[in-house]
């Protein structure tokens, strides 16, 4: 294993990287945010042992059952419903109804759901549910933006569905940038995917035992 220093140019607003300096970040459009930064490139030798492969044709069919919401258009977009241990990103312009949609989905499936919000209080979510005549009895509210705390809570509570509203408000203590930056979003997404796979794997093991 060897390492060498090299200079890259980093946008302080969105963490985009460039090989040379430029006045405007082409990723987020900010002016004067691209600065030189030292970067250590580590060249690793191929010392890891080889892994075991398997033929796709020899694998048994998966018995995963999708979680259907009863909202026909939503289920159709997801190919028939929500796949357990998967992440679904609901995107769109501010104010178009993303939070309203996911609240309707959470109430429709009637599963043990953890609603994590960094933007609204539990009272605000309850008021929206009442305004829409939704039964929110299966929802557990958690007001938090720290991703490590969120993942620990998910691992402890083991909800069947977790809603993060929104991913742009979540941050990790290990990432030195503001919430909503690309590096924070990437870090939070990786952690959430890991905990989704882990909790579902534990359920399968317990079910087989």
Would you kindly provide a written description of the structure presented here, covering whatever features stand out?
By secondary structure, this protein is α/β, with parallel strands linked by helices. It folds into two domains: 2-43; 65-208, P-loop containing nucleotide triphosphate hydrolases (Rossmann fold), CATH 3.40.50.300. Helices cover 32% and strands 18% of the residues. It contains five helices and six strands. It has helices spanning 72-77, 98-109, 122-131, 147-157, 182-208; strands at residues 2-11, 17-18, 34-43, 113-117, 139-143, 161-165. A three-stranded antiparallel beta sheet has the order 2-1-3, with no helix packed on it. The chain has a three-stranded parallel beta sheet with strand order 5-4-6, sandwiched between helices. Helix 3 links the parallel strand 4 and strand 5 (139-143). Helix 4 (147-157) packs parallel to helix 5. The longest helix has 27 residues, at 182-208. It is globular and about 55 Å long. Residues 202-209 have low confidence and may be disordered.
